[in-house]
Amino acid sequence: MIFPILRGFVSPHLAPLTVFLFAINLFVFLATYDEYERTDARMDELITDRAFLETQGSAFSVMISRDPAKFSRTLIELARKSYSGDVESRKILGSLAIRNVEFMTQATDYEFGGDEVAVADWRGKFKELKSLQFEHPSYLWGISRLKTQWVQFITYQFSHSGFLHLFWNMVFLLIFGMFIETKLGGSFVVVTYFGGGLLGAWIFSQLSGISSAPLVGASAAVSALIALVGFGWLSREKIRFFFWLLPAEGYFGFVALPSWLVLIVSLIPDVSGYLAASQDFGSVAYAAHLGGALWGFVIAMSLDRGWLVEENDPSSPAAPPSSDHRPGARI
Asked: What domains are there in the chain, each with its CATH number?
């Protein structure tokens, strides 16, 4: 295992804007946690109910068979198996239907046929599911076909789908944000964070399409911060990593390595994940991560070409005296 440490967690007064972004993410998570748990628990009950899933899968297979040109080969094949009596394919279709815009927008009034009692029971639960979506924080704050106003392109960056999702995003936000803020200044953290989040969401919508499932999380914004550091290899600086191979002396510790290694450790998995993921099954927004990384690359290249001036550049009259006399120390 190898993990970027950089300068670690520095004192908050040295990186106030990074800490402020962290605080907003944490506040939103805590403020929406109870509602998230309540609505998520009930939605899980509905979408894991066997009868509900099978009926929904049957309904979805009918919709697919009537207009197959609108659906992927994967869904068409699952619909074929569902018609042949494959219960597992029917359950899978029932789960995937919730992500499909065509189904979620039309299923309420769509005539599918089948067992009238089962269909009536499913319709009642389906209406409840859609009602819960409008109350769920991820749907309120995230980007989906239910919510695509401009404000969601900002708020989705501060909403997370669970504690682990929040935890890892915040660890990387603090490590990379604090490093950038102490090296370049707070404005670079803010511009990179929000720019990465916006470009990541836009690229995700172009490559993966906006589905009924919400896009949430700071991953695209954090990917931009990571890429800004990673592409800093142009300055030939090394950064600190923690490595762990074995629980024995000499096989774990800290080491200084080229900054481009951050891209391999953090971003290459996103490339492989995006190439391997199916749009029908994928739940991780790899395209958004890559879009955020692209923004970080743009900022890094702009710095390298001198189009942007670091706040901490000692050549600036407003900057405090520094012992580093290079004309603009960069990442």
From this structure: 2-35+147-304 (1.20.1540.10), 48-135 (no CATH)
